[in-house]
Amino acid sequence: MKTRVLLADDHKIMREGLRSLLAVTPGVEVVGEASDGRTAVQLVLKLMPDVVVMDIGMPDLNGVDATRQIKTRAPRTKVIALSLHSDERFIAGMFKAGASGYLLKDGAFEELAHAIRTVADGHTYLCPRIAKTVVKDYLRDAQTAANSGGHALSDREREVLQLVAEGKSTKEIAGRLDVSVKTIETHRTRIMERLGVHSVAELTKYAVREGLTSLET
After folding, report:
1. Model pTM score
2. What are the E-state strand segments in 89-145?
3. What is the phi/psi pair of residue 26, to 5°?
4. Which of 11, 24, 28, 214 could be bridged to 57 by S-S, CB 3.0 to 4.6 A?
5. Superfamily of structural domain 3-139
6. What percentage of the chain exceeds 70 in pLDDT?
């Protein structure tokens, strides 16, 4: 039986390249592609792939929050982060969200194929180049993470913050999340209060700093 894979990356050329390489990889079948995190979550619920290869810096819903939603709603699906980032914040964020693997985009394709097989078998795969970073992060005092401003926000508030930072209007965000405009206004007010900021510009800087969005869309 083949391992069914979903590719989630906002760069089309990246998805096409991975699809072409995986097409000739024994035991692997690409069943879908997503260009943003929200679409990735929707396709996982529809297609129920075995593994999702997930970019972190995606529009609409970033890879960390998309992974968290996938693991909550489709826990049997494994997620492998494929990212440009070797920063410990991104690595820790993905594993805490439920990812089973983490690779850097400048690695060889053979490593990704090996990682897919590894996580599909129920194991964890970590790129050797970032193993030291992960060990260091998990040995730190957990209280540091608990005191982080990003962790003070709920999952829905993180979604709203990302969309605000990406320039979406209150009406657009309400439509995207299927809630009222008043609800979004309440979320935005609460986010500003919790983070101690007073403008959209400050919210945007915070979102970029915390890796919720790269704005490179």
Report:
1. 0.73
2. 101-104, 125-126
3. -60, 135
4. 214
5. Response regulator (3.40.50.2300)
6. 89
